[in-house]
Amino acid sequence: MNGWLMGPSRIFFRKWQTKLLPLASILAIAILLLVPLLFKLDGKPHADWQQFLGRFHVLAVHLPVTLILLVPLLEIGGRYRPALREAAVLALLFSVVACLGTFTLGYLLAYGSGTAGAGVTHHMWGGVWLTIGVLLCYLIRPSWESGRVPYAYPALLTCVLLVMVWTAHEGGSLTHGRNYLTEYAPAPLKKWPGLGRVQAKMKLVPGSFYAQNIDPIFDANCVECHGTAKTKGDLRLDAFNLLMDGGQDGAVIVPGHPERSILFQRITLPHGDKKAMPAEDKPPLKPEQITWIKAWIAQGASPSVPSLAGIAAPEAYKEIALPQVGDYSGMLAQISQIDASQGVKLVPVSRKLGDGLILNTVNVAAKFNDAQLAQFEKFAPYIVEVDLGRSKVSDKCFDALKNFTHLRSLNLEETAVTGQGLAKLTGLSQLTYVNLSGTKVTQANIAPLLAMRNLHHLYFYNTPAQAASTAHAASTPSSQQSPTRSSP
Ligand code: HEC
Asked: From ligand 1's centre to the CA of 267, what distance in Å?
């Protein structure tokens, strides 16, 4: 088979085959296995020249693929035309050289650019085993040809082809994203295991720290690129399970280790860094949001724990569910009639019926009195807000108001009330806001309200009660007693 070698070259070839080749092979295998351990892919970019050369990997990689594919074709053809067998040997030898060169460029690319993660690690080890496999094929082929070892070579060549397909796929996923091939596959095909990812979304656990604080951050800042419409980096952040599935580089969250979690690394890169998230110069996350994500990962990245040690989530991020009122849709005709005849407005808080009604007397304040208010008792269970500011109501109004069981907000500004009978309102457990500014309320009369747990906003600016509380400021430290807001 070595007919094309003559004279001194033939002598060199013998020496190469018997002495140098085994030595060179052992050395090459040792280097291939040692490089990933000596030059760890630590995610840090190194030199520009490495990246410059490394980028040719993407081009060069087609050469070994083509050469390796040629080998089985030539071997099959060699059954009929023996000359093709010699070509197969050459193709193998060139494959080894091409693999070594391409591996070197690929390693320069990953090391130089600071690429790290499961995807690049798979691709890299694929390259190592592929190169070693091709080399072993070259080494054992003579024994196969001489008939001494009949099966090892075909078996090894088959393995090499399988490893090559896998390695190429891992590499393709790095450049194009993991679902590049299947993205536009017909829907029935995508359901096949392994082709499309099963993307059922796990429901949020109500009341969990994740649902209340982490998910809303992703929702507002990330899901436009990491959701169903777009899935950049093959990462979805619109559900806990999809987040934990990770992206093109594998897991993005390592529970317990924020600094090892790709997601945390990406949101803490300096603004302007190409890899910083949110991408494309979108405003970075707020420091407190980064703190929460860090604490959440550090404390196990759980979808269900309600709170984290050391993190007090602000009120604004908690979902405040409004208590709902009953169905008043049967009374809509009466409501619009009152509006038409008396000019008193009963308006819905929102489009949701259950959010209730607002009683607003501002247009008729000069005439609106206790007797008129009493007429609204039939709507009382549906009214959540009552504005009686500057109207003619007196202390008698509390007799009617005590039946407004869903009342949350009450404005009695600049009315004639003195607060006599205010105690009747203490049964209104949902009441959070009462404005008594500009009335004649006294400190003794508002005292019962101070014990109401949900009444966070009590205003009595410009009243005898305020005068008294300023005089006794030292003895009345409760914040509720200081007028926090003047009349609007
Ligand atoms: C404008 C689009 C855009 C927005 C908004 C965005 N990303 Fe990305 N993200 C990308 C692109 C494109 C990639 C893939 C390229 C890359 O890795 O840089 C990516 C990749 C990632 C990766 C790496 C995935 C992997 O496996 O390599 C993480 C982690 C990530 N994004 C997190 C986030 C987080 C967290 C947010 C919100 C705070 C966010 N992204 C917002 C476009 C975006």
From this structure: 9
Question: Which residues is 409 bridged to in the sheet?
Answer: 385, 433
Digit-coded pLDDT (tens) for 241-265 = 999 989 888 899 999 999 999 999 9
CA atoms within 13 A on the CB side of 29: 12
What's the gap in Å between 305 CA and the centre of ligand 1?
26
Over the stretch 235-247, which tens digit does the pLDDT of each residue have? 899 999 999 989 8
Q: Give the start-to-end residue ranges of the domains of the chain.
A: 2-176, 210-298, 329-480
Tally Cβ neighbours within 10 Å of residue 258: 22
Angle at the Cα of 346 (from 343 to 352), degrees rounded to 5?
150
Q: What are phi and psi of 458, to 5 degrees?
A: -120, 120
CB 269 within 8 A of CB 259: no
Q: Say yes or no: CB of residue 280 within 6 Å of ligand 1.
A: yes
Provide the whole-model pTM.
Answer: 0.45
Dump the DSSP string for 130-197. HHHHHHHHHHHHHHHHTTSSSSHHHHHHHHHHHHHHHHHHHHHHHHH-TTTTTTTS-HHHHTSTTTSP
Q: Does domain 329-480 have CATH number 3.40.50.1580?
A: no
Q: What are phi and psi of 347, to 5 degrees?
A: -115, 145
Contact 273, 263 (CB under 8 A): no
